[in-house]
Specification:
The protein has 340 residues and is an alpha/beta fold. It folds into two domains: 2-63, Alpha-Beta Plaits; 83-336, Aldolase class I (TIM Barrel, Alpha-Beta Barrel), CATH 3.20.20.70. The protein is 34% helix and 18% strand. The strands form three sheets. An eight-stranded parallel barrel has the order 7-8-9-10-11-12-13-14, surrounded by seven helices. It has a four-stranded antiparallel sheet with strand order 2-3-1-4, covered by helices on one side. Helix 3 links the parallel strand 7 and strand 8. Helix 6 (194-201) packs across helix 7 (217-229) and helix 10 runs parallel beside helix 11. It binds phosphoenolpyruvate and manganese (II) ion. Residues 105, 275, 311-312 line the site of manganese (II) ion.
Length: 340
Amino acid sequence: MVVVMRPGAAAEEIDGVVRRVEGAGGSAFVSRGVQRTIIGLVGDVVAFQGLNLRAMPGVVEVVRVSKPYKLVSRENHPDASTITVGPRGDVHIGPDTFVLIAGPCAVETAEQTFEAADMAKAAGATMLRGGAYKPRTSPYAFQGLGVKGLEILAEARERTGLPVVTEVVDPKDVAVVAEHADMLQIGTRNMQNFPLLQAVGGVRKPVMLKRGLTATYEEWLMAAEYIAQRGNLDIVLCERGIRTFETATRNTLDVSAVPMVHALSHLPIVVDPSHSAGKRDLVVPLTRAAIAVGADAVMIDVHADPTAALCDGPQALFGEALDELAAACRELPPMVGRKV
Ligand code: PEP
Ligand code: MN
C-alpha cells in the first residue's frame, strides 16, 4: 500500500502515519518529493485496512498495490485452476477443456426436465442445469418446486449421467441443495448475499458464482473470496450479462469479462448467453463470441416447448437453433486449443 500525503503536509502529519503503521507491526518508508511526500507500507495489508489511514490529517489518498482478494487472485496463484464436478469426477472446467452446460431454466415437472435433459445430452452437454429455487422479480411468478425439484434433478442425473448445477437462494437450503446437486449456483441477485456466500463456502461441492447485475470485476472476485475464505476453493465464475442502458437485449454480455477475469483470477469462467441475451436468436452468436474470447464453459437454457415454459421461454433453445449451438460447441473450441 502507498499513502499519498497532501502537498506541503506537516512533519507531524507524516510522523503520525509512520507511527500508526509501525504500531500495527508494519514498516513505513517515507519518500519526500519536491511537491509531496508518499509513504510506502510493507507488512500485513489486512492489518493496515483497520488503521483508517485515509482519515488521518494530511492524507489525501491510500492506494493499494496488491489485489484485495488473495485466495482467488492470479497474482498469488499463477496457474489456472481446473474444477472437477460430478459423482465420478468426470467433468473438468478449466483451461484445457470446453464444457457445455444445458437444461431448463426451471424444473417444472419431471417429464419436462427429463425431456430437456435428453435434449441437453444430445447437444453434447456434459452437465445439466435447472432451477428448483427460482429468484423471480415478481412474487406472483413461478417460484420453483423446491425440494421436489431437487429430487427431479437427481433423477435426471441418474437417467442421463449428467452432473447437476442448481441455484440456492437461502442459506438454510444450502445443505439440502448440496445433498442433491453436484454444483451449487449463486444467482446474480445474490452475488453479495454474504451469509449465503459463507454458507456455500462451508460445503464440499463446487460453486458457480454468477456476476451481479451491476458488479465490477473486483466486487465479483471479492464475493468469490468470501466463499474461498470459508474453505471452498472449487469456484467457477459466470458472466451472465450486466445491466446497461441498452433495452434491445435483456442484459449486455460483457465479453471483456472473460479475458479480464482470467488475467485477475485463477478461477475458470463460464458464460451464460441465455440470460445475457434473453432472446433465442442471440444465443448462438453470443456462444460463438464466448468461445472465441476463451470461456471455459457456456451454460444455456433449453426447453422442449418454450411457449409453455414457466420461466424464460423466449431465450430457451430447441430444434434447429439447438443443433446450431451443438455444432458451434463441437467445432469452435478445438480452434482455440480446447478439448471438447
Ligand atoms: C438462472 O441461471 O436460472 C438465473 C436465474 O440466472 P441469473 O441469476 O443470472 O439471473
Ligand atoms: Mn432463467
